[in-house]
Design a protein that fits this description.
With about 450 residues, the protein is α+β, with helices and mostly antiparallel strands. The protein has a 5-stranded antiparallel sheet with strand order 1-10-9-6-7, with helices on one face. The longest helix is centred in the middle third of the chain and has 51 residues. It starts with a helix and ends with a strand.
Length: about 450
Amino acid sequence: MTWIKQFNRFRSGFLNPFTFFEREFNYSEAKAWKDQTRIDQSFIRLAFLLHFTMYPALAIPEVRNSERGVLYLGVIFLINVMSLVLSFQEKFLSWVIQISNFAIIFLMMNLFHESFYSFQDLESLQIYNNYFLLISLIVIFQMFRLKKGSCFFTGMIAICLHIGFVTIKRMELGVDDFPRILFVPDVVYLLCIIIGTFSVIIVKRLISISSELDLEYKYIQQDLIVAKQVQENLFPGRLSIKGIKYDVMRITPNHIGGDFFDFVQLREGNTGIFLTDIAGHGIASALVASMVKIMVSTMPYILKVHPSRLMDYIDDSLQKQFQSYHASAIYMFLDFISKEVTFSNAGHPYLIHGSFTKEFHEIETEGAILGFGIKKPIAEQIKLPLVERDRFFLYTDGLIENKNGEGKLLGVEGLLEILNENRSEKELNVFKAKVQKAVEKFFGDVVLEDDTLFLIVEVE
């Protein structure tokens, strides 16, 4: 039974053309195209499959009736079988290919010579001489080896052998000169040499470029992994902040993005909450977001307790240092002593306020995008009472502007509907989990195009 299983594996693997091509030419990485041994092995196996296209020549009466036509094709079959067997080892593959090519070309030309060159009139010779053009397929096929000299070597063999057979026939007929049209196959062989060689040169150049790009891509991927780790460290860890509880969701389509939030803990126990969305996404936006974090962390204390002036400071800094980048941001200052919440919104989606006893709603504010120096102050300052168990929902526009599989936007209305459907959940982590689940259900399996972040803060 073992040999039956092996035969079935061979039949389903090698003899199945779909499985064969999937296995032999699965060169997903550029470096695989430089493995000449593997390419030669695949070449021999593909040549074995393609050589069966020669056998319809037996349908030609002259070939079928020739004395040794079947014998020649039988020997060609044995040569291909032998090459196939030898392809499973790695030594002398180049010699196997060249010797088998020479033998096959010689046998095919000898077959045509015996079948068609038996004619004595030049007109018939000119007609049947065109069958020698079939050898050009063997010549051009050599370019799949991806060796510059393959087409040249095989083509020159074909040219020499064909001229040799033409010369022998001329001697048989005792003719001093033959019509030049009999040398058309040689011209075609020469064209195949030129086309095949230049094709190999171009493909190898493309492979070289692809290898360089592949290497660069790997370096970039490694750098992005490091950059992601660095950016992750810039985000606040799981902090325990007196007076509030919070939960967050972040989705970054790229390794890193421009959405960022941070907590500013002040010495008297008050807390600032900063959230920004740098225009665009990717490396540049992430770097600018990192710079904004540094600005917020190192700015004077008086700005950290005055949201509007904090926004002015960031607006001026972005305009001076990053003229081509802008951002939206929101900053909340929670004063647990005076029991007040003060916030400013600079071109960011409106702050959403609610609790498990009252509906969530937007707090409309006026403010301009940071980085353009549009006006002073850049954003108005709003004060609210700091009420226990109140919840503040801060988010970036990716949450409401990404499209789902049907091309629909969640929008502010959809977001408010999700928040209010789940607002009765008293535990913040349960509330956040249900909101996130509803958001994920809306987007389904769609890969979001823009960075998405939301932060829920609950006053204790």
